Write the structure tokens for this entry.
Amino acid sequence: MGKKNIGFIGLGIMGTPMAKHLIKAGYEIAVYDKNIDAVKHMVTEGAKPCESPSDVASKSKTIIVMVPDSSDVKAVISDNNGILETIGTESVVIDMSTISPKVGIEMANLLGSKRVKYMDAPVTGGVVGAHNAKLSILVGGDAETFENVLPILKVMGSNVAHMGPNGAGHAAKLANQILGIGCMVGLAEGLVFAEKMGLDLSAFMDAASKGASTSWMLENVGPTLLDRDFSPGFMARHMRKDLRLVVEAAGDVHAAVPITSIISQLYEQMLSEGDGSVGHHAIIKVIERLSGIKKD
Ligand code: NAD
């Protein structure tokens, strides 16, 4: 593996700060995004621009992919001008996107046919974790390759956990989304209920944060709900995508996900009404409307 050369594809809210940490750590980065402005920004940070995923693969033996959905990962790897066209044997593709575990395994087999390793390495910790290099990274793939890519992942994350073979990282990330979204929507529902009951929301949140119902969501997302700050963070359309992935994967293994299924429907409602580029916590507005509260 070319230790100091890394390709990076997908320079969005998460990918850009993650790639910057790699540059700071001394890696030479070759970057591509279909958004040319994102590439130009990274060039000002010292990255080499590329014209396509195949261009990235011709310059790097380790390639990080951080794009939205399963179809985007497939496009980057196997479409015309994709990674597969130029990647050399013994290279590694580290897919940090949140996608379907089944598609991750499909990509591992496809790349495996060219003697290229695929590691699923989706992340949690959000945009704050990406900026502070404090992501928790959930990795699926063989143990030897895990050890090889560990120094690179440690540049971006404070916790890097090997969850098992290919697909296990993506599966762990989806399980994580079930935990997180239950908390998030519970918080929004609790605040709307408190408002309808005439409570002072700041006083309620302060009291709740000192009891057994406190959570990361309450402490970190709660204040943004009170401030009506719905900028992303994590976009609503990506959360809707993650919930679709959970429900699909649960169907494959006959896992019951009744709460997540209902929450998924709330996100369908939200996106049918408007822009999916707001923060996913704007789901509180759907619950407010269901409760007859009219606010911006
Ligand atoms: P984003 O939409 O901000 O960025 C995605 C980037 O990928 C964009 O710049 C887009 O132009 C690029 N892209 C899409 N398709 C492409 C293609 N075919 N070729 C090249 N570039 C392409 O999304 P994000 O918030 O950075 O999220 C990226 C991934 O990380 C998603 O899977 C998301 O679910 C996951 N994630 C996000 C967060 C968060 O808080 N934002 C947290 C954890 C995980």
About this structure: Residues 123 and 137 are 5 Å apart (CA to CA). The chain has 14 helices and nine strands. The mean pLDDT is 96. The pocket of nicotinamide-adenine-dinucleotide is lined by residues 9-15, 32-35, 38, 66-68, 72, 75-76, 97-98, 123-124, 126-127, 233-234, 238, 242 (CB under 6 Å).
